[in-house]
UniProtKB/TrEMBL annotation:
Binding-site positions, ATP: A21, G22, A23, G24, S25, G26, K27, T28
Protein name: DNA 3'-5' helicase
Catalytic activity: Couples ATP hydrolysis with the unwinding of duplex DNA by translocating in the 3'-5' direction; ATP + H2O = ADP + phosphate + H(+)
Keywords from the UniProt entry: ATP-binding, DNA-binding, Helicase, Hydrolase, Isomerase, Nucleotide-binding
Length: 427
């Protein structure tokens, strides 16, 4: 049932493990297998085990898998933020966290808009998400005094009105861990399994260090680190051995999801990235699969025609875009809403046929752009396809556009194949 790589992880008794898992490598199944093995050996207590996932959806999936395997129901399985809130609410006696509620973006921007009205000529008409991106970098450049006054006002307002944001939970729990009351939390949870560790941040790493876990298993893929806009960075994953010198690294390198040509194609964008853990990706499904490049002009008619052509071949296909704006454009042109997604929302999912839009919607700002992350985003999109992958690229190239730079590898590699692939049948 298990591969040799999976067995090595499941049977390992090393207290600190770093699992470097490629796309489609069965990492969740392996983690459940690890729990199953530990329960058989009675080597740990489920009620002292914390399992951290990245999204609510992943939390639900992990719980369902444990239930199907008839594993213990005593594991604490949640997102990082949800665990911090749980721990603060139950153990932090300095503040009644149960009276606090999550602040919605809509409410936040209402309050922010009112406060910043007198500063409108200093900060201009920038959208709030851009103004406050990267710890308010642009705001601070425009008015450091205005930024500091706003931060003080906003924190006071949240306390007075009993609101919190996700970052408040993380920083609040980090500070709580320096108190005597935190000893109960550290004694409670001795074992940690954390998924998607490549999407963590420096503060979450500090929390893990301060919790003093006896056993730690971090699972992730630095090639799929795509949440830089939230402050996440692959750095804690890349440098994990520096923070935990006794760690033993394991690889899950076999891709069980995609056919061979799709795997080889999806790896192309990453060859330009330097800060990464090298992996030798192995193909489980030896069939070649369909990879096809479609060149589309800057018009609305051609793209929808291409969609219709491929829809006839696979009515369940999914079209992936880089941005919500581009997603709306496709929906307005006639693509069903349930068949177009952003790459970020598709992370962790898989589809038989994927159309990936590499024409519009990609980050293009020369100064602020993180090209390495954009290449990882492209990799995540490409690696969602199981059997058939269709890449949409611009008919004409502009060297300064990121989307066109990302298209170069596919254009050169497939120019000679296009005539053959144009007439290729899916089945």
């Amino acid at each position: 049932m298990w591969s040799e790589e999976q067995k090595a992880i499941i049977l390992s008794d090393h207290p600190i493990k770093q699992v470097i898992a490629g796309a489609g490598s069965g990492k969740t199944a392996t983690m459940v297998g690890l729990l199953e093995e530990r329960e058989k050996k009675n080597s740990f207590l489920p009620e002292n085990t914390l399992i951290v996932t990245f999204t609510k959806k992943a939390t639900k999936e992990f719980k369902e898998r444990c239930h199907k395997k008839a594993l213990s129901s005593k594991y604490h399985i949640s997102t990082f933020h949800a665990f911090c809130y749980f721990a603060l609410k139950h153990y932090d006696t300095s503040k009644n966290w149960s009276h606090y509620k999550l602040l919605s973006d809509r409410k936040k921007w209402e309050i922010t808009k009112e406060f910043l009205r007198p500063l409108q000529f200093e900060i201009g008409g920038l959208p709030f998400p851009i103004l406050f991106k990267n710890n308010g970098k642009i705001f601070r450049e425009l008015s450091i005094e205005g930024y500091e006054v706003y931060q003080s006002f906003f924190q006071t307002w949240k306390e007075k009105n009993h609101y919190f944001e996700f970052d408040d939970l993380i920083f609040g729990f980090l500070h709580f861990l320096d108190t005597i009351s935190a000893d109960r939390v550290k004694e409670k949870w001795r074992t940690l399994i954390i998924d998607e560790f490549q999407d963590t941040d420096e503060v979450q790493l500090q929390i893990i260090q301060k919790m003093n876990f006896h056993s730690i298993t971090v699972v992730g893929d630095d090639w799929q680190a795509i949440y830089g806009f939230r402050g996440a960075t692959p750095k804690p994953f890349l440098e994990f051995p520096n923070h935990f010198p006794g760690v033993v690294q394991y690889f899950l390198s076999t891709n069980y999801r995609s056919k061979d040509s799709i795997i080889r194609t999806s790896l192309l964008p990453l060859k330009h990235n330097k800060d990464k853990i090298e992996k030798q990706v192995q193909t489980f499904r030896k069939e070649k699969g369909i990879f096809h490049v479609e060149r589309i002009k800057d018009s609305k008619t051609t793209p929808i025609t291409i969609w219709q052509t491929w829809y006839k071949k696979d009515p369940e296909l999914i079209l992936l875009t880089r941005s919500n704006f581009r997603k709306r454009e496709w929906i307005e042109s006639g693509v069903p809403q349930n068949q177009v997604m952003t790459i970020h929302s598709a992370k962790g999912l898989e589809f038989r046929t994927v159309l990936l839009d590499l024409v519009f919607g990609w980050s293009e700002g020369e100064k602020e752009i993180n090209e390495a992350e954009e290449r990882r985003i492209l990799y995540v999109g490409l690696s969602r396809a199981k059997d058939n992958l269709v890449l949409l690229i611009a008919d004409s190239s502009k060297t300064k556009r990121l989307a066109d730079r990302l298209s170069e590898d596919f254009s050169i590699r497939n120019r000679w194949r296009n005539r053959t692939l144009r007439w290729a049948r899916l089945w």
